[in-house]
Amino acid sequence: MATPRETAGVPLQLSEIRAELDRTAAEIGVDSQKLQLTFERSDFNLRCEVEEVSDSLLIDTIAIAKRHLENWRIHTFEKSFLSIQALNDNLFATEGLLEKIKIRISGLYGEKTLEITKKGALVHAELSLMSALLRRALGRVSGKDVLSQLAEMGCHIYRPQDKIGGIAAFSRLTAKLRETVILPLKNPEVYDKIARETRSEFSLNRPRAVLFTGPPGTGKTTMARHVGKEAGLVVVHVPLENILSAYYGESTKRLAVIFDAATTTREPLILFLDEIDALAPSRNEKLFEASRRLLSVLLRKIDGLETQNNIITVGATNRPQDLDSALLSRFDTILEFNEPQQEDIQELIRFYAKQLSAGDNEKLAQQLSGLSVRAIRDVCLRAERQLAREQIEKSTTAVAAPTLEYYVRTLAEYRLGRPAD
Ligand SMILES: Nc1ncnc2c1ncn2[C@@H]1O[C@H](COP(=O)(O)OP(=O)(O)O)[C@@H](O)[C@H]1O
Ligand SMILES: [Mg+2]
């Protein structure tokens, strides 16, 4: 796995930038067409109209900028106008200054615009800065509630009323989830009443912290979102890997702030610490120190949540064996996600390739054995694209949807490691 420092400076693909901005727009309920994005000769430019250029927007912009990147120069800061530019980490280094990200907000001359420009490719920290700014400038939240503060800090907020795509509900796993997580979340009073009857001293018998473990692509992140939806609770998704890389050097403070913000809400929520293995101790000595500090903050904060009745922590990790034992011990329930079994695969095929007959479904399921959920999904989507290409190139529409043969062929290519098209 790449360390935070390694991923922090990696240039992003335009498609990744678009996807993140679309997601941000969807989360704050803004039409993504309103974000005018241009990328010409490696000059990046994002422009959008804002409702109002208030003093508080300008001040918040500086605060948000500072949270994401350490050093800035304020070119202009006056009523209804702000122009700032990032500087190098080393304040005395002058190279590349012209290429640093710039933010300009103007409420002058009838304008009401936010503009972010950068010469050259964007990196993670800059992208999450842009999302945070858009949330602040375009979000329709009055004042700043806790959830939008969390969103500004790089968390994703999933509300139970959000529309999300369906999933194949693997019966064994979902039964277990229902029993261990969803029922207690939905009916805490029943659990508490029983505990009051049984204990000489009342203590909670509901799970406080649940850990999802399992290889990548087995559906941990997807399931956490669905648990929230089923239980009717907001999910605060904390993508640790991204947050740690975006706030390299400040990540300890950042994590503490996120926890503190989360604990100030009164509404019940699921705090979902995704990719918690980003905190696993590193072999690199300098990073090791940093991750120890981070870990001790996390442990303290999770302990703090013990007394908080309205928050349940869900963690997800690909590598539970690498997690610190003190951290592992904080989770009272562990749910293992594995490569799907035959019945799950068949359910996935019914979900991603419903046109296949029961017989074909079974045949394909056998061949897909051993693949992760993500891989199975990928194979199904590739088969569709393959069929689409053929229809376009040969101008035929012999079949309306891929047949078993398409999936088998795509699977063979997939196993050979042919890159996706
Ligand atoms: N139960 C499911 N039904 C349908 N698709 C799923 C399901 N679980 C996961 N997926 C798909 O598989 C992909 C990988 O899942 P993800 O939750 O990201 O895995 P993980 O977090 O374990 O790495 C996702 O893009 C999602 O679309
Ligand atoms: Mg995941």
Describe the protein:
It comes from Turneriella parva (strain ATCC BAA-1111 / DSM 21527 / NCTC 11395 / H) (Leptospira parva). GO terms for molecular function: ATP binding; ATP hydrolysis activity. The chain is an alpha/beta fold and 421 residues long. The protein folds into three domains: 4-140; 171-336, P-loop containing nucleotide triphosphate hydrolases (Rossmann fold); 342-415, Helicase, Ruva Protein, domain 3. It has helices spanning 4-8, 14-28, 55-68, 124-138, 146-152, 171-186, 188-198, 220-231, 240-246, 251-263, 285-305, 325-329, 342-352, 358-367, 373-394, 404-415; strands spanning 36-40, 43-49, 72-78, 81-86, 102-106, 113-119, 156-158, 209-213, 234-239, 269-274, 311-317, 333-336. The strands form two sheets. A six-stranded antiparallel beta sheet has the order 1-2-6-5-4-3, covered by helices on one side. A six-stranded mixed beta sheet has the order 7-9-10-11-8-12, sandwiched between helices. The two termini are 25 Å apart. The structure holds adenosine-5'-diphosphate and magnesium ion. The site of adenosine-5'-diphosphate has 17 residues, from helix 8, helix 13 and helix 15.
